[in-house]
Amino acid sequence: MVNPVRFVTFVVTAQVLAQIGTFTLPALLPDFIMRWGLSGTEAGWLIGAYFLAYVAAVPVLVSLTDRVPARRIYMIGTAAAALSHLGFAFTDDFWLGMALRCLAGIGWAGCYMPGLKVIADRLEGAAQSRAVTWHAAGVGIAGACSFIVAGGMAALGGVPAAFLFSAVAAFAALLIGCFVMPRDAPPRRTDTAALLDFRPVLRNRQAMAWIAGYTVHTWELAALRAWGVAFLVAVIALHGAPAWLPGPTAIFTIVGLVGIATSIAGNELAQRLGRGRVVAAAMGGGAMLALACGLSAAALPLAVLCIIAWNAAIYLDSSALTAGTVQAAETGRRGATMGLHSMCGYAGGFIGPIGVGVALDAGGGWALAFGHLAMLGVVGLLAVRWLGRRR
Asked: Is 272 exposed, middle or buried (0-12, 13-18, 19+ CB in 10 A)?
């Protein structure tokens, strides 16, 4: 039997490689807005198409892992991701770019939750919760580093080089999944529920509470990731930047890494203080910081500090929410539960970037673009509290 620590390390490494190119487009979004002549709404759709395709694909692909080895789904996902990055390296057309972004979303739907389920199916209790946390941390670190890697590769070889690197990384993830993930099928189900019958999951109030929280979490996170670099570029254009300050992509990588540390700490706090308290602190703090971030464009140092703090608040409940869904899932329905968790979350991720773009086009500036997300945090907290109540 494979050593559990070694197995988790291999799977997390594959997830890092699959994720490292995910935010290449957001990192280079100011360049695409200028070269393709995009409006804020069009740029939001280009980012959001990824999440829309993910939402459409994830319930099918993740639910299938209750019936076939997750390894097969994972290989399909990594292959789709590699092809999408390869295509984006050579396109200069908005609509083809939209199609490739959709392919990338399908690819990540086949990687993220299926990869997590491979780990969750082989561990229980605290070991499972910590493995889920390290999985989330690996994905988050890759997402954070995606910004600086994209900026660095584009500086060295132009925009195509950044996407070519992402394609090679996704192909490497495919190879790791092929050789490391188990070939055995999951235990045979004892019921005959249809593949996309989520009614049993919807009746699981504890699982749905964490799913509601994850939807709000991903909505906010996607909005910030999609527009964070563009926000910093806009603030620097207004006020200039001191020579010692890193570039926007480097700043946002630091922002992401701080968020990962917060995510790991948040899971440990959740085990000691309770998930409900950590989620409440994250959503309440995030709501206040979203409003502060929207008003911080008047000064560059304040904008950077607000971005770091807001992102940390968003990440605080990231692992706690996912671990809560995994542990609340009923036996034999973990794949379906995780599929609904991911589908709802990324539905929020689809809306978030578009909402920011629409707010900018409407002339509301960054105060409305980021500030409107404060109300979302409050609504999300109320939903988690209501669903989490035991009947």
From this structure: exposed
Using alpha carbons, select from 123, 140, 358 the residue that is nearest to residue 259. 140
Q: State both tokens at 138.
A: 């690996």
- Which tokens go with 59? 């319930």
CB 346 within 8 A of CB 55: yes
Q: Which tens digit of pLDDT belongs to each residue from 73-106?
A: 999 999 999 999 999 999 889 999 999 999 999 9
CB neighbourhood size of 302 (10 A): 15
Token representation of residue 240: 């200039």
Domains of the chain: 4-181+202-388 (1.20.1250.20)
Q: How far out from the chain centre does Cα 159 lie?
A: 23
Residue 238 is encoded by which pair of tokens?
Answer: 């207004």
Quick one: 118 exposed, middle or buried, by C-beta within 10 A (0-12, 13-18, 19+)? Answer: buried
Q: pLDDT, tens digit, for every residue of 30-64?
A: 899 999 999 989 999 998 899 899 888 988 887 78
Q: What is the largest CA-CA distance in the chain?
A: 64
Which is nearest to 310 in space by CA: 388, 238, 232?
232
Location of structure tokens 């199609």: 99
Residue 356 in contact with residue 372, Cβ under 8 Å? no
SS3 15: helix
160 Cβ contact partners less than 8 Å away, ≥ 6 residues apart: 89, 90
Of 369, 356, 253, the residue nearest 304 (C-alpha): 253
